[in-house]
Amino acid sequence: MDAALIHSTLVEVLQNIQATSELECPPLGGGTKPIEELPKFDSKIWPVAIGMLGAKLGINIANDVNIFRQDDSSIALTIDEIVAKVVAIVEAQTVVEPKQANAQ
Questions:
Q1: What pLDDT score was predicted for residue 95?
Q2: CA-to-CA distance for 70 and 17, rounded, in angstroms?
Q3: The model's pTM
Q4: Is residue 101 domain-resident?
């Protein structure tokens, strides 16, 4: 899956959430850290954003994966880092799914 598509879809999802919540949405670039820079973008909103992103991209992002933070830490990721994380998730699914289909 193309990183540019993931990037544009992620930005769209974040802008949609902020607009729906009637909250300010600063310009979103590759260096933007949504957790730190989007008003009220917290642990109640992350799962919604992750679910919306997965649905729009047609991919499955596990419920226990927070794409907005580094794994096992509280360090916020930039949009570019989030895109890279989603690309890795997509690539892992692409490798696993054909094996599952052949096993059945």
A1: 72
A2: 22
A3: 0.88
A4: no
